[in-house]
Design brief:
This protein is mostly helical. Helix content is about 75%, strand content about 0%.
Length: about 475
């Protein structure tokens, strides 16, 4: 149970009342397509940093669980690989994305490979963006706070995290993300401050945690860590990064916004990793480490501070759910429905609103069917990254691009291979050839690209009239 203090409950209730007010204010809004999808391309640097930082850090309970189990390896598995991926996006892709004046990642695929590739890419983006892992996480947190079975709280988490962006679009997402950014940092600063004041620092933690918690791999071995560095390459095709870059006020904001976001992620990862180590030291017999942060807060924080910390956890997850659910919604509205039907672009916000609830339902079903946050991160990243990474990078580079059919081959075949690898593991307990699915998918993508290039070269060298 969360708390019996009325002030703590009042803080949580006040947060959701504020979100309801945001929804009511936007109830009569009729934004243009550009306003709805990319906030009119007027997002400033502070807003850009706040929304990207908050969007990309929804896995808070998973971080607590992983740190409780493996220590500082958390920072090197779920931190450093993604800093690298984000840095590559900032240096090589962010400015070009903003300069392109596009609205979605499938727009980029259509510009360079045609409509068929854009539709295949849209399906991949939708699956990747549907926030199943974060809906599961927030539902788990609600179940810990209120008690009862997880399933109804997973459904409630999905609904409460998206209703307020239904009409306002990306502007509403960015507005609420800025508030959630403050709450997530404030909550963990409070908890870490109380822990340090009560127990001290490293001298307290070291003798009370396993020695493996201070080793870079956490006792998992190099291969288990390295695979996350490969999965993190998916950052370069993460639709949230592209959407924020498209929405930035100018190319400079797009580039510098991502670089500043990395600085803030490093700071937040320091706080969450430190709190996870305190959880292991103070709760060594914890039966379910997914509750490491809630249990640690319950035993450490006084009333009001406890309420603020729980608000920080809720805001951390909700900022990710609303952002990715909105991306999945616009993928339905623009990249699938509009691209298939054509016609007036003014209808895209309406189709996207329907898409929001379709994406939310899809994410909820997936969360209930695969109730493991880390497994969802691993499996979806392993399937989608090989589908998008090479086609997108070649499109931006402007060299070595295959033709439309080759591009579709480079997406469909790697996706099928990685998906079959995941299914095989679920049925047999191990991957084929003990090979991670993302390695199989990326290797297939490279082979498909080489094959498409060879066919293009052969076709270009066949004299006209020859068969």
């Amino acid at each position: 149970m969360f708390t019996q203090n009325a002030l703590d409950w009042a803080l949580v209730a006040g947060y959701f009342i504020a979100l309801a007010f945001v929804w009511l204010r936007s109830f009569g809004a009729r934004p243009t397509t550009e306003d709805y999808l990319v906030a009119g391309r007027r997002v400033t640097l502070p807003a850009f940093v706040a929304t990207l930082v908050a969007t990309w850090y929804g896995g808070i309970l998973g971080i607590g669980e992983y740190t409780w189990r493996y220590g500082i390896s958390n920072w090197l598995v779920f931190g450093a690989p993604y800093y690298l991926g984000a840095g590559l996006f900032a240096l090589f892709l962010a400015k070009r994305a903003r300069e392109s004046e596009l609205m979605t990642l499938p727009d980029l695929l259509e510009r360079h490979y045609g409509r068929g590739a854009a539709l295949v890419g849209a399906v991949a983006v939708f699956v990747n963006a549907a926030p199943a892992a974060y809906v599961l996480m927030l539902g788990t947190l609600f179940a810990a706070m209120f008690g009862g079975a997880a399933t109804p709280w997973v459904i409630a988490a999905a609904i409460l995290s998206v209703f307020y962006v239904d009409r306002g679009g990306l502007r509403t997402v960015i507005l609420t993300d800025q508030v959630q950014f403050v709450l997530m940092y404030g909550g963990f600063m409070l908890l870490l401050g109380f822990l340090f004041a009560q127990h001290g620092g490293v001298a307290f933690l070291t003798p009370r945690t396993p020695a493996s918690h201070w080793v870079w791999h956490g006792g998992n071995g190099a291969a288990a860590v390295i695979v996350w560095y490969v999965i993190a390459l998916g950052t370069m095709v993460d639709p949230a990064f592209w959407q924020r870059a498209y929405a930035a006020r100018d190319p400079r904001v797009a580039k510098h916004g991502v670089l500043w976001s990395i600085v803030f992620w490093i700071g937040f990862d320091f706080m969450t990793t430190a709190c996870g180590l305190y959880a292991r030291a103070l709760l060594p017999e914890l039966k379910n480490p997914v509750y490491a942060f809630p249990q640690l807060a319950n035993m450490t924080l006084p009333p009001v501070a406890l309420g603020l910390f729980y608000l920080g956890m809720i805001a951390t997850v909700m900022s990710t759910i609303d952002s990715y659910a909105f991306i999945a919604a616009t993928t339905v509205g623009r990249d699938l429905v509009w691209r298939l039907r054509g016609g007036d672009t003014a209808r895209i916000p309406v189709w996207s609103r329907y898409g929001l609830w379709f994406a939310t339902a899809f994410a909820t079903v997936l969360a209930l069917a695969r109730p493991s946050v880390v497994a969802l991160w691993h499996d979806l990243g392993s399937i989608v990254t090989p589908m998008l990474l090479l086609p997108v990078l070649l499109a931006v580079a402007g060299r070595g691009r295959p033709g439309p059919r080759g591009a579709m081959l480079m997406m469909l075949v790697p996706g099928a291979v990685s998906f079959s690898w995941v299914l095989w593991k679920n049925g047999h307990g191990t991957y084929p050839f003990a090979l991670e699915p993302i390695y199989a998918g990326l290797a297939t993508s490279l082979l498909a690209w080489a094959g498409a290039r060879a066919l293009n070269h052969r076709a270009a060298n066949i004299p006209a009239g020859d068969s």
